[in-house]
Amino acid sequence: MTIRPILIHPDPRLKKVCDPITGVPVEIGKLAEDMLETMYDAPGIGLAAPQIGVTQRLLVMDCVKDPELAQRPMALINPVITWSSEDRSTYEEGCLSIPEQYAEVERPAVVRVQWTALDGTRQEEEFSGLWATCVQHEIDHLDGKLFIDYLKPLKRQMITRKMEKLKRERARA
Ligand code: NI
């Protein structure tokens, strides 16, 4: 497994609508392993393929934050939201592509998601709580959408400028 570099916003690859994955090629299993490794290392609770520069519809997540509990690594190929609750919930979201910036985002509190697992089987599950927020945030990535796109333009621009500055500093280092 390899820890991959995570792209930092702004980057055109983070704005792309990602391509569906056909079947479950061996490379996808390998890519999912690398993404989980990269996510745990960051550390984060979710990572979408475009965040490591692969514009395909794959995301990984594990919202078990309590170190006492067993990890629950998940890899979702071509995930689709098939139902969203009218109930909404607000979480302070962050993103590994937008380091150290957090903002409240309101989303449906419960969602039902269908996807293909790494063993090729079709899966469907209802997510609530942090899992619901996370899976929606990551599916947004597959459509070129970031959590800051839900914020007011001024706040979004402020964060984008900070990220541009961070990238200049990192390029110089
Ligand atoms: Ni993100």
Helix content: 25-40%
What structural class do helix, strand and pairing data support? Answer: alpha+beta
Largest sheet, order of strands side by side? 1-2-3-6-7
Known CATH architecture: Alpha-Beta Complex
The N- to C-terminal Cα distance equals 26 Å
What percent strand?
25-35%
Shape: globular
Number of helices: 3
Q: Please indicate the count of domains.
A: 1
Nearest-integer average pLDDT:
97
Structural commentary:
A hairpin with a 5-residue loop joins strand 6 (110-116) and strand 7 (122-128). This protein has one domain (12-172): Peptide Deformylase (Alpha-Beta Complex). It has 173 residues and is an alpha+beta fold. Helices cover 29% and strands 29% of the residues. The two termini are 26 Å apart. A five-stranded antiparallel sheet has the order 1-2-3-6-7. It is built from three helices and seven strands; from the N terminus they run αβββββββαα. The protein has helices at residues 26-41, 129-142, 153-172; strands spanning 46-48, 58-61, 74-84, 88-95, 98-108, 110-116, 122-128. Nickel (II) ion is lined by residues 95-97, 137, 141.
